[in-house]
Specification:
Layout: E1 16-18, E2 23-25, H1 28-37, H2 49-57, H3 62-73, H4 78-88, H5 94-107, H6 112-125, H7 129-142, H8 148-164, H9 168-181, H10 186-199, H11 202-211, H12 216-232, H13 237-246, H14 254-272
Antiparallel strand pairs: 1-2
Helix pairs in contact: 2-3, 3-4, 4-5, 6-7, 6-8, 7-8, 8-9, 8-10, 9-10, 10-12
Length: 275
């Protein structure tokens, strides 16, 4: 069951529309939810007299409105504006309110498409993969095509998302496109080769490199990374755990052991998606 919150103020029949995210709210709790979930998409226009008047007249929050009016008239910080609203409603924890204010400050003066990518990156970093995929795909269709550096960064993020979904062929395609957008994007080149290395046989991978000599230097860096991972993994906590798991093979029924292995594999997949 979800957490119950005490309502602050009235539920307004007339909603207030937040144009930056195309969403309407009817009460301060809905406004707080929107501020927290969309902090990276909002801009300075959130700090405005119309919203203050709506909170006062429609929600009955005259005391809160009095606190907000000086910020509007003095063109104060939108992050402070949001912080006052969140604290007044006692919405979320103090740490979460601080994080919301930080995100508002971080993206306040960015261009719209940069805000949208920051938001998608935030979803990806918090493992909200389906939401991130929708956000990236929407941005991919509308991003300014002349901004090659931005588009390369966007395509790289989309490749990372596909890799976390274990869709390595799609990941490789995005990484390659990212490299073509910006040949200085070394990360995209290396991740393209890594995705191909996961897909191809050793012979096919060598043939790929032979036909694309521009990736030779990147392939050396990738092999160094693989060598280091191969060297370090046998002594890692993860490998020790797997060895312990394999020792249970003789003491468990096959079905019980298979279930244990499936559980561990799903756990490892979930961990991989957060890397």
């Amino acid at each position: 069951m979800g957490e119950l919150r005490a309502t602050v103020g009235r539920y307004s029949i007339t909603p207030y529309r937040i144009t930056q995210v195309g969403t309407s709210v009817h009460c301060i709790e809905e406004l707080c939810f929107l501020l927290q979930e969309n902090a990276l998409l909002l801009d300075r226009s959130i700090c405005n007299e119309e919203l203050v008047n709506w909170l006062s007249d429609n929600c009955g929050l005259k005391e809160l409105a009095q606190q907000l009016k000086p910020l509007v008239h003095q063109k104060g910080s939108p992050s402070a504006f949001a912080g006052i609203i969140l604290e007044y409603a006692d919405y979320a924890t103090k740490e979460e309110r601080t994080e919301t204010e930080r995100l508002l400050r971080e993206g306040m003066d960015e261009a719209t498409h940069v805000k949208q990518k920051n938001y998608a990156d935030y979803l990806l970093s918090h493992n909200k993969l389906d939401e991130a995929l929708t956000a990236y795909q929407s941005l991919y269709d509308t991003a300014p095509k002349q901004d090659h550096s931005f588009n390369s960064s966007l395509l790289t993020s989309m490749g990372v998302l596909m890799a976390r979904l274990f869709r390595f062929e799609a990941a490789a395609d995005y990484f390659l496109e990212a490299y073509h957008e910006n040949p200085l994007n070394e990360a995209a080149a290396i991740q393209y080769l890594a995705a191909k290395r996961m897909l191809l046989t050793p012979e096919e991978y060598v043939a790929l490199l032979a036909g694309q000599s521009q990736f030779y230097e990147y392939s050396l860096k990738l092999e160094t990374m693989f060598s280091e991972a191969t060297r370090d993994y046998p002594m890692s906590a993860q490998m020790q755990e797997l060895r312990s798991l394999m020792q249970k093979r003789t003491s468990l029924a096959p079905s019980a052991f298979d279930a244990l292995i499936d559980e561990k594999l799903n756990e490892m997949k979930a961990t991989y998606r957060t890397l």
